[in-house]
Design brief:
This protein is mainly β. The protein has two domains: 92 residues, Ribosomal Protein L25, Chain P; 79 residues, RNA Polymerase Alpha Subunit, Chain A, domain 2 (Beta Complex). The chain contains three helices and 13 strands. The strands form three sheets. A six-stranded mixed β-barrel has the order 1-3-2-6-5-4. β4 and β5 form a beta hairpin. The chain is elongated and about 65 Å long.
Length: 205
């Protein structure tokens, strides 16, 4: 997985007055837990642009002003209901030998036969919840839809990997090709062979 570094300042005071002052200064109050201690810190709102406003998933290196570096992933984020400004972010510390649970984006590959014949690709999942070591997790989970005909479905079992465990039931559908008004009849693959030649016109007497 890709990693981002966020330069931050550790917070000693975590009361409402202190939090308000941090936000008024254009910074976001944050917390990281999951390790031996809980760490409160703050960073400029602009520092989270590439982490929050993207469909990609990243691990984060939180570089504190005291020299400490913490490896983490984003766990939860709160936005202002009117302005959409970031109010608070929760992170979870990650370790090389401990699996993490995370939702990874899903992306299709290939060109579905059913879609070529007028069907429509519908998604049930845009993200897939998995568990695994951070070092083994991909940036995105890909699924080949080349062979999907109209009515066919792609299941989570079709994108299984030894690198992680998928935390959805095996019968969970990721996407399927549904019929539409523009659908045409799908013919079975024709056997290879020569096409019979047309009969020549009879010669005149």
């Amino acid at each position: 997985m890709k990693s981002l570094t966020i330069n931050a300042s550790q917070r000693e005071s975590v009361g409402k007055k202190s939090t308000k002052a941090i936000r008024n200064a254009g910074q976001v109050p944050c917390v990281v837990y999951g390790g031996d201690t809980v760490t409160h810190f703050a960073a400029p709102e602009s520092a989270f642009k590439d982490l929050v406003y993207t469909p990609d998933v990243h691990t984060v290196v939180i570089a504190l002003d005291n020299g400490t570096k913490i490896n983490a992933i984003l766990q939860d984020i709160q936005f202002h209901p009117v302005t959409d400004r970031i109010l608070h972010i929760d992170f979870v510390e990650i370790f090389d030998d401990k699996p993490i649970t995370i939702e990874l984006p899903f992306r299709t590959t290939g060109n579905s036969r059913g879609v070529r014949n007028g069907g429509v690709l519908r998604f049930n999942l845009r993200r897939i919840k998995v568990k695994g070591l951070a070092s083994n997790l991909p940036d995105v989970i890909e699924g080949d839809i080349t062979n999907l005909k109209i009515g066919n479905k792609l299941y989570v079992t079709d994108v299984a990997s030894d690198d992680f465990t998928i935390l959805h039931p095996d019968n969970t559908v990721i996407c399927m090709v549904k019929t539409s008004r523009n659908v045409v009849e799908e013919d079975e693959d024709e056997e290879e062979g020569e096409t019979p030649a047309a009969e020549a016109p009879a010669a005149e007497a």
